[in-house]
Amino acid sequence: MKRALVLIVAMLLASPVAMAQPSKTRAAKVLAKPAKAVVAKAADKDKKKKAATTSRARVAFGKGGELRPAREVIGRREEPLTLEEDIAKQIEKLLRGPLRNGITGLYVADARSGEPLFAVNSDDPLNPASNVKMVSTATALELLGPTFRYTTRVLGPEPDAAGVVHGNLYLLGTWDPTLAAGDIDDLAQKLTARGVKQLDGNVLSGSDPTRDGIFRAVVPIAITAGEPGQPPTATTPAGFDLVTVDVTAKTEKRARKRPKLTYKQELTTDAAGHKRIKLTIGGTIGKGGETMYALYTKERTAVAAHQLRAALRAYQVVVNGDISTIELGDFIGDQVGSKGLPVELARHESQTLGDIVTRVNKWSINWLADRVVMTAAALSRRTTPSMDVAIDAMYAWMQRHANLSKDSVVIDTGSGLSYRTRITPHELVAIVRSAGGFAQDGDQAVAKAWLGSLSIAGTDGTLRHRFRVPEIQGHIHAKTGTLSTAIALTGVLDLDPTRPLAFSIITNSLRPLRKGYVRKAHEQLVALLAKYVVATAKPTSLPAGTPITFGKPTTSLPAINETAVTVPDEIAEPQFDPELDVETSTSK
Hints:
By secondary structure, the chain is of the alpha/beta class. It has 15 helices and 23 strands. It has helices spanning 2-14, 16-20, 26-32, 35-57, 83-96, 133-144, 181-193, 300-314, 328-338, 353-363, 366-381, 387-402, 425-435, 444-452, 515-536, and strands spanning 60-63, 66-69, 103-110, 116-120, 149-156, 164-165, 169-172, 198-199, 203-205, 218-224, 233-235, 243-247, 250-251, 260-269, 275-285, 290-296, 318-319, 323-325, 343-352, 455-456, 476-483, 486-493, 501-508. It is elongated and about 90 Å long. The N and C termini lie far apart (71 Å).
């Protein structure tokens, strides 16, 4: 009877008459839908939910040199979990909790043997942001060597007995991305030490905008308020003729903390046909106010040449000429035809490439990362720097050392400041093992310089304020990565010197990520790895004084003790706060 009644109700619900009846409640509307559609939609929803969950919690751990899915054993056995199973379980809690939004990839391996230890989404192509700098700096170090130095020289005829240079001086560089105004002053000082007291000719340079010039070209303009109603005074560096200033601004009667000035620059030529930059200053400045305006320009060689003229004048050298552009071959030909082969009169050398790479990786300097790999690739191939040449060199390095090809990796910058980059955590660990010298497939001096360029936890660089726990501080050498939708941390955990671990953690999302929130979870993952290292290390293999159990928790790292790692089930959801897409020395 009951079964018949159920069938009758089902037939009524499926009949056109029943479906045509008006539905007054939400439940009635759902029931009014075809049964197959409802079931299919529910099944699809459950499938998507399950896929979203398992994509973040498909943790595997190493067993016998191979990765084994942890979910096959966790929750299906009565005996206590092994250490690896417990760590995998804690990783899953993080992935389902604070890292549940977006996707997080993790890969951990023995740095020396390559034996896999833990993995989740490790072969998913993700955007590692500034972790790309690990590839570009490794490429540059291999191409030129860590002791390489960029040189900038002054060529010309020897000064006569009275110290007069009868002819032109040629400023010849090697695309030094670190060349600064102070280095040009150093060249001027060396010229005066050589006996130069007067220059009858011009200061020449080539047409390449960066080979002979200052890449980060900036001219400081000092601005001082005048009398109320009168224009302020704008002062360019002494003896620096490249910039002319037109002041239309006015001084206000009252003082203001911040001036309301406007700046407009345009490229012009003077009556003699020489290139000049005209700066127009408008707006207002408060009574008694002072400010400094940094005029950035792409006239890099012109800035360098004018800086040399100004520096020579500062050393009491009489400079009669101006600046001009000519190709090196033409200069040498003209010089040989009139006064003989030019000689090197002064030379400046940059820091070593190893030191420059350290600046790049520890502080994640985007523009310098791009320039270093571009110039290194160009110098090694005897061509002009370009990003295309640099990318080819980076792909070649990855092919040689990590067996990675263009089919598996996507990079289009040397800095990682791109939303098109795609590398898996597994591939990044391979890069770390090779670049750091653990795979023994390259020059160990180069590997030592590269590994030493990474930030050290709680000590320097972008990790100076992170991992400030005595047991971990100083034992993580890693590269951070930050974009608005990508946060990464890749490097080496050397808590046990006999068994350093190489790891890569990447979180990507379609929406902007909260940096501090995600980094906290990444630090919890590293804390789990630290627990694993201590639990599996032989007491004699740890550094003297290293405690076997970790101590009290701190604000920057979750509690770690001898029994388990405490991982919260929930962390307060962050409020939406868009982040800048540029890594800076203070934000990582």
